[in-house]
């Protein structure tokens, strides 16, 4: 099955995608992680997109479709969780034409809580595990529990960029939820609680999607 996680920045898509990977063995495809790797490696693509990503804008649909096409090829029968794609109507239409998706899980979180979460977020520079300074601190400060690499603040997790990202979500991404509702592929997950509660609710939803 190919499950799409959608939600505003800070909603917990990465955390829940990691949970599906660790608990159910899903392959996680995070377009944000892939783009950040290109930026860190200073690849041709990385150089082209660096300023766009750090300012919080969306990268072009053509680039994202090509990135995803390469990742998803040969994965038609696997269990895959998509984190961060689609983020615009053209991306959603392209995805539905090319991939047999199972459904969208919309992690719904209030705006103030989103900002609070992003401002306290720490990300592992190696395995992309996600922590929060107060809600979900690592066992040892600054070190990833999973792979022992360094925890960093994402360059786009600063207020100026957060506001641009929330605006891009409202204008370009949230209309896509209506597209999936019309297809009967929309499932809402309340993302306001503690990660463990959300994990449990997510597993219940996954059972519905399997049917
Ligand atoms: P994320 O890690 O999902 O928050 O993504 C970080 C950044 O990568 C976004 O703010 C965008 O600049 C870029 N990005 C990731 N996925 C997409 C996408 N599907 N379409 C356009 N830009 C994207």
Features:
211 residues, alpha/beta, Rossmann fold, 5-stranded parallel beta sheet, 3-stranded antiparallel beta sheet, 8 strands, 16% strand, binds adenosine monophosphate
Any overview of this molecule?
By secondary structure, the chain is an alpha/beta fold. It has a domain at 2-109 and 173-210: P-loop containing nucleotide triphosphate hydrolases (Rossmann fold), CATH 3.40.50.300. It is built from nine helices and eight strands. The chain has helices at residues 13-24, 31-41, 44-55, 61-72, 89-98, 111-119, 159-173, 175-182, 195-210; strands at residues 2-6, 27-30, 80-83, 103-108, 121-124, 130-132, 151-152, 186-190. It has a five-stranded parallel beta sheet, with helices on both faces. The mean pLDDT is 94. Bound molecules: adenosine monophosphate (AMP). Adenosine monophosphate binds at residues 9, 31-32, 35, 52-53, 56-59, 64, 84-85, 87, 91, 156, 165.
């Amino acid at each position: 099955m190919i499950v799409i996680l959608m939600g505003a920045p800070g909603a917990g898509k990465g955390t829940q995608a990691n949970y599906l990977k660790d608990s159910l063995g899903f392959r996680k495809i995070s377009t944000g992680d892939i783009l950040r790797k290109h930026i860190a490696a200073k690849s041709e693509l990385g150089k082209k997109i660096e300023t766009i990503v750090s300012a919080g804008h969306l990268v072009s649909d053509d680039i994202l479709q090509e990135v995803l096409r390469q990742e998803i090829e040969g994965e038609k029968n696997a269990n895959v969780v998509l984190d961060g794609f689609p983020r615009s109507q053209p991306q959603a239409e392209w995805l539905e034409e090319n991939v047999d998706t199972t459904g969208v899980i919309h992690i719904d979180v209030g705006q103030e809580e989103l900002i609070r979460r992003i401002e306290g977020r720490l990300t592992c520079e190696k395995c992309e595990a996600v922590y929060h300074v107060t809600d979900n601190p690592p066992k040892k400060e600054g070190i990833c529990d999973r792979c022992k690499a360094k925890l960093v603040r994402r360059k786009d997790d600063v207020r100026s960029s957060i506001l641009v990202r929330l605006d891009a979500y409202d204008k370009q991404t949230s209309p896509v939820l209506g597209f999936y509702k019309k297809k009967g592929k929309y499932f809402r997950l309340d993302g306001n609680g503690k990660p463990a509660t959300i994990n449990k609710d997510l597993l219940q939803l996954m059972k519905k999607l399997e049917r």
